Amino acid sequence: MHLYGTQAISEEGHLTIGQVDTLELAKEYGTPLFVYDTALIRQRARSFIDTFKKLGVKAEVAYASKAFACVAVYQLAAEENLSLDVVSGGELFTALKAGFPAERIHFHGNNKSIAELEQAFDANIGCIVVDNFYEIQLLKEISERRQQKMRILLRVTPGVEAHTHDFITTGQADSKFGFDLNNGQADEAFQQTFNHEFLELLGLHCHIGSQIFDTAGFALAGEKLIDKISDWHKTHDFTCTVLNLGGGFGIRYTEEDAPLEPQVYVEDMITVVKNKATVLGLTMPEIWIEPGRSLVGDAGTSLYTIGSQKTVPDVRKYIAVDGGMSDNIRPALYDAKYEAVIANKAHAPKDEIYTIAGKLCESGDKLIIDAKLQETASGDTLAIFCTGAYGYSMASNYNRVPRPAIVFVENGQHQLAVRRESYEDIVQNDLPLTLKKGE
């Protein structure tokens, strides 16, 4: 059995995380429950940051917080000297509520509203990643009206397709994101923003996909961006100070996945950019990256309580848990694969095959199909690994199911980071019917 971070098996045969028994966590906080190994998050963050420092390259490592956002995780990111990538007014509000340094916040998104852009200017954030011509016009109007400067990057699509799931590939030409690097759109965006009185163009940004297990795509994208920067340097004497190569660094979900260590991605990126810049006679830009899943994905474990069981003779055995697609939509949405263990029998052999079904009223609500597990019984605690990214952040109240609680663990300590929703929370925005009944 593959264990992650500080996960271990106690003498009693229980799964522990951060030196805390998961059964104790399930008893105290209830299930479903997200448990985050904060020591593993810190380790991953330092791996990225320390590699840049070791190689003497100025950089910002921005946590792509769409993977998982809450006040506590933003505060953890700040403690580890990360920058922050937000994609909505809600994420920006949460970051500011957490006391995250505004100058280290980067705002992404393909349809930022006027209110969201005003919010970014009010907070005087570090950078806005510009996605389209409509946004350029809004930024010009807002900055000129307010007489306020804003640093920007232009997001471009370099035409590089990562070897990943179609639904989460964003660097190819046919994308809702960014200015196409090959059809003149990026050049037009540059013309509209370069030397603007209040918009400071730092450089370019790209994101080629997610769950990527090699560095070839990043290398090719980096070369294409440097070539374009070289063109603008020749024609407009533009000096690129920041090159943001995005994120998408893969993690291990199952034995089929073979991710690289964080430092490998960083080292290969730096090598490509430095060599290309040297050949073209350009100043080495600052490198920004945006790890999200690779910081929190395998640091998260979901705990459930097993309820009903059903055997379909000669077909399969089902076990049902007290959560499902309301707290982890990825299996239904992306056909995502996970591994699991019975937390109170973690030392026992995995001799049984079960399909883990959720409690939602959908036939597609299956968390793992044909999972290898210990023999189970109602009341057992099931732990599903690597649910720290895009689990809670994509959770819903489908079937009016409350969203789970979130607990952080480290060095034998545990704390509630997000409380469990109640039924009262679910109906708090509902209003009674006041329309008059028709005759």
Distance between the termini: 67 Å
Main β-sheet description: 9 strands, mixed
User: Which residues form runs of ≥5 with pLDDT under 50?
Assistant: none
CATH class of the largest domain: Alpha Beta
CATH fold call of the largest domain: TIM Barrel
The whole-angstrom Rg is 23 Å
Our count of helices gives: 12
Principal-axes shape call? globular
Entry summary:
The protein has helices at 22-29, 38-54, 71-79, 89-97, 114-123, 133-146, 185-193, 216-236, 262-280, 293-296, 330-334, 423-427, and strands at 8-9, 15-17, 20-21, 33-37, 59-64, 83-86, 105-107, 127-130, 150-157, 179-180, 199-205, 242-244, 286-289, 300-312, 316-321, 340-342, 352-357, 366-373, 381-385, 405-410, 413-418. The chain has 439 residues and is α/β, with parallel strands linked by helices.
What is the topology?
Layout: E1 8-9, E2 15-17, E3 20-21, H1 22-29, E4 33-37, H2 38-54, E5 59-64, H3 71-79, E6 83-86, H4 89-97, E7 105-107, H5 114-123, E8 127-130, H6 133-146, E9 150-157, E10 179-180, H7 185-193, E11 199-205, H8 216-236, E12 242-244, H9 262-280, E13 286-289, H10 293-296, E14 300-312, E15 316-321, H11 330-334, E16 340-342, E17 352-357, E18 366-373, E19 381-385, E20 405-410, E21 413-418, H12 423-427
Parallel strand pairs: 4-20, 5-6, 5-13, 6-7, 7-8, 8-9, 9-10, 9-11, 11-12, 12-13, 15-17
Antiparallel strand pairs: 1-2, 2-3, 4-14, 14-15, 14-19, 16-19, 17-18, 20-21
Helix pairs in contact: 2-9, 5-6, 8-9
